[in-house]
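hey so u asked for the seq, here:
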Amino acid sequence: MVKFVAAAFLLSTFALPVFSKTHKVTYPNACSEVWAAVKDTLGNAENYTIKLTDESKMTVSYSVKHSAHVTITGALRQRPNTVSLRPQGDGCGMEVESNYSGFEHNDAGDFTKRVNESLAKRKETTPAEAAKPPNAK
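ran it, structure tokens below
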């Protein structure tokens, strides 16, 4: 019985990342706005490490840092994910391909939540900046 439990644990630990999922969200915003929020979100070095960015295609490959998953060497476990933006009508479609979604973490959901928060902050600051009178000489 112990061997069965150990084997099941090892298989679930190493097999889960193989089952990547794509999380899709459509925004009413222009892709340039969503792209700015994506870059703002990925700029948090405590949560993410950017691996590869393609500005023209609005695609980023990045790793998620989770301090709860510490390896024997003490390094943080990082899981590679990608995010891509595509114009959809008047809005923008965001696809997050996550290599991990499980009991403890939901990488795609957490990332989307942070992008949404960044978009909301940008929306709050934009009207205030537009209301400022231009500097007169």
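Confidence is low (pLDDT under 50) at residues 8-18, 68-75. Residues 44 and 119 are 15 Å apart (CA to CA).
lmk if thats what u needed
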